[in-house]
Amino acid sequence: MTQNPRLGILGSGQLALLLTQSARSLGYPVHIYAKHEDDPACADADRVLIGPLDDRQRLTVFLKDVDVVMFESEFIDTALLASIAEGEPTVFAPDLRAMDVGADKWQQKQLFNSLSIATSAAIPSDSYEAVASFVDAAVAEFSGGFVLKWAREGYDGIGVHVVPHPEDCHGAAHKAALIFCEKAIGKGSVVYAEAFVPYERELAMVACRDGAGNMTFYPLVETQQKQGVCHTVKVPASEWGVSREISEAAEASCRKVAEHLGLVGSFALEFFFTKSQDLLVNEFAPRVHNSGHYTSDAAVCSQFENHVRACVGQSLGSSKVEGYWGMINVLGGPAYRGPAQEPKIQVAAATSYWYGKKQLRPMRKMGHINVSGVNKGELEKRLVDIDKSLEQWQQHFKDK
């Protein structure tokens, strides 16, 4: 790698924006490959190339102009990128094998099992000749309920279908399950059914690994969802009843995945903490993660800066976090589509991040707000106050 590598990011949304800002603060120019010229990351980038992610000609131009390629999303054509970069010194961080696993949740399931990382039991659709046979097998296998998931292209609640009572999976409920599966299979994705987990809470951990194998871990956090989309993050999870042993188990899982895949950069594991106090890994993201947005204000070195550091070969910064922290996503309300202005949050110790997206739509991530408190109670009150302000902001646009 050159001494002053040219950084490229495939993607131009909020994660690319926050990565770009961190890279430039370290003195690295950033070249963005964007879908639209008004995407969030474009205004802060040094150079922007507009094009679809399957355009071989434009991707070839982009890859020739950068030394290191980072990713905003795992939903990429790794085979296309590999063929373009064949014989070239281009560095993908993380590498394309890791991105492939990140893009395929069924591959992740197989990986977790191979590494003896506890996860829920699951069966894949491609083991059965007919979709109906697969759904019937899931009904028979998981009497306590199951979740159908697309292996590929699922995110923020998309690609998930819950069947809480298998005994009722007939008639319209059975048909809905079949339609869900057929939609994914029509896109070329496996569907799998996994046992429904009666969890007490959802947790996540962001970690970072450099090319030499050094790792740093951010605190285990509690996440809360709305309609399958991350809404609130509370830090550290230990202050909300999660033991040190559980945090250590999460770190061990992160280390196993990172070392097996040879990961470079920040990544995240999402977990279920069950009512029986067990930790089950749910999914893996081979990139910076929504649950780690709080690190921009709370950590000595954020997940974004550490990702850049790892990708360019710099030593990792400290992931130490002190105190009580929270993050709330600014999400579009249920009824309005159109332009929107940044909400004005009048809450102490709160820092707002607005992504500059041109159109508001239901549940779209428009920004986020980080906030701290001197104790658990103060943090929780501030999170409630921010949430109320955001509900009023949503109502304002709903009433237009």
From TrEMBL:
This is N5-carboxyaminoimidazole ribonucleotide synthase. The keyword Ribonucleoprotein does not apply. Catalyzes the ATP-dependent conversion of 5-aminoimidazole ribonucleotide (AIR) and HCO(3)(-) to N5-carboxyaminoimidazole ribonucleotide (N5-CAIR). ATP binds at residues 105, 149, 194-197, 202, 282-283. Homodimer. The keyword Nucleotide-binding applies. One of its GO terms (molecular function) is ATP binding. Belongs to the PurK/PurT family. Residues 109-312 form the ATP-grasp domain. Pfam families: ATP-grasp, PurK_C, RS_preATP-grasp-like. Pathway: Purine metabolism; IMP biosynthesis via de novo pathway; 5-amino-1-(5-phospho-D-ribosyl)imidazole-4-carboxylate from 5-amino-1-(5-phospho-D-ribosyl)imidazole (N5-CAIR route): step 1/2. It is an enzyme of class 6 (ligase). It comes from Pseudobacteriovorax antillogorgiicola. One of its GO terms (biological process) is 'de novo' IMP biosynthetic process. Keywords: ATP-binding, Ligase, Nucleotide-binding, Purine biosynthesis. Its EC number is 6.3.4.18. InterPro entries: ATP-grasp, ATP-grasp_carboxylate-amine, ATP_grasp_subdomain_1, PreATP-grasp_dom_sf, PurK, PurK_C, PurT/PurK_preATP-grasp, Rudment_hybrid_motif. The gene is purK. It catalyses: 5-amino-1-(5-phospho-beta-D-ribosyl)imidazole + hydrogencarbonate + ATP = 5-carboxyamino-1-(5-phospho-D-ribosyl)imidazole + ADP + phosphate + 2 H(+). NCBIfam families: PRK06019.1-5 (NF004679).
